[in-house]
User: Fold this.
Amino acid sequence: MSADTSTHTALVMPPGNSQPVPAATDDDVAAPSRSSVILGLLSVYLIWGSTYLAIHFGLKGFPPFVMAGGRFLSAGLLIYLWLRWRGVRPPNLAQWRDCLVMGLLLLGMGNGLVTVAQQTVSSGIAAVAVASMPVWAALFGLAFGRRYNALEWSGVVVGFIGVLVLNAGGELGGNLSGAAALLLAAAAWAFGSVWSRGRKLPPPFMATAAQMLCGGALMLVFGLLRGERLTAMPPADAVIALVYLIVFGSIIGFGAYIWLLNNVRPALATSYAYVNPPIAVLLGALLAGESVTGHTVLALVVILSGVVLISRGGRPPPGTVRPVTRTPG
Assistant:
């Protein structure tokens, strides 16, 4: 959930994006230049891996829901106006309704609660907790008729062991509110991703803009209703962090992700899921002085092992498209 999440939008196929936008497959990928692929991967690796740290600094001057809401509302408006200027049709009423639900689940609860948790939890711990999202998505898939093989079930079990390890000790062990916010954020993002399958959304970038607009507006209103206010001019580092989240985390990062989905194999495009958490932990330690314990590293390794098992077990036959999700950061 950059924490980046950015944002999110949806996914690649049923889960989130509009008229299912097919992700590239091994058979139909037109070979992009090597430098373009490297640049795209570095963008999603580094930008989305750094959004948790940016949230950490942004919270030094902004309250959580006002900051997250302003971030996505601004990014969504910029993308929406650009798309309309290019002649892209706006969503219809039914599409706005689905984008509203997804904006609430993916951004309002997913990213919003990550931002709330980071008031008391380090950026690295937040990234590790959010890495469990695919485990929650696998469980919610059962309610929508999904059936799993032994490898996928092994991944679910391993992933939840990692979640238990993370919550059993260390920073989250004595922080009930932070742990609850992070687990609920990952679960909400996962449920929204599974729920989005089969929804007739607008094209990818317009779906992204609509979800950002809806989710951002909901968070901003909720923040104001709960009494969040700017009582003083935010410090420069908080303002810079917010601008970074808007421009890089929510616009450039997702643009690179969409490009990758349509130009390289899905497994490569979505490899950020394994890279972002370690980057977030490393940046938090180097730039924010966050401590990295062996307990945290162990939880990260176990959780990512579960995600790998789920991913490999659910690999579709050649020529088919699998849904892909961005986590709440």
